[in-house]
Amino acid sequence: METAEIRRRFLDHFEKNGHTVVPSASLISPDPSLLFTVAGMVPFIPYLTGQQTPPWQRATSVQKCIRTQDIEEVGKTTRHGTFFQMNGNFSFGDYFKEGAIAHAWELVTGSISDGGFGFDPGSVWVTVFHDDDEAAALWKKVAGLPDERIQRRGLLDNYWHTGQPGPGGPCSEIYIDRGPQYGPDGGPVVDEDRFLEIWNLVFMQEQITDVKAKDDFVVVGELPSKNIDTGMGLERVAYLLQGVENLYEIDQVFPTLQKAAELAGTRYGADHGDDVRLRVVADHIRSSLMLIGDGVTPSNEGRGYVLRRLLRRSVRAMRLLGVQDRTLPELLPVSKDCMKAAYPDLESDFARISSVAYGEEDAFRRTLQTGTQIFDLAADETKSKALTALPGDTAFKLHDTYGFPIDLTLEMAAEQGLSVDEAGFRRLMTEQRERAKADAKAKKTGHADTGAYRELREAGPTPFTGYEGLETDSRVRGLLLDGVSVPGASEGETVEVVLDRTPFYAESGGQDSDAGVITGDGFELEVLDVQRPVKGLVVHKVRVLKGEVISGQEVAAKVDREWRIGACQAHSGTHIVHAALRQVLGPQALQSGSYNKPGYLRLDFAWGQALGAATRSEVEEVANLAIRRDHPVSATYMPLERARELGALALFGETYDEEVRVVEMAGSWSRELCGGTHVGHSSQVGLVTLTGESSVGAGSRRVEAFVGIEGFRYLATERALVSRLADLLKVQPDQLPERIERLVAQVRDAEKELSKVRASALGARAGELAASARDVYGVAFVGYEAPAGTAADDLRSLALDVRGRLGNEKPAVVAASGAGDTGRPSVVIAVNEPGREWGVKAGALVRVAAQTLGGGGGGKDDVAQGGGTDASKIGDALTAVEHAIGETVTRGS
Ligand code: SER
Question: So what's the architecture of 749-892 in CATH?
Answer without folding.
Answer: Roll (3.10)
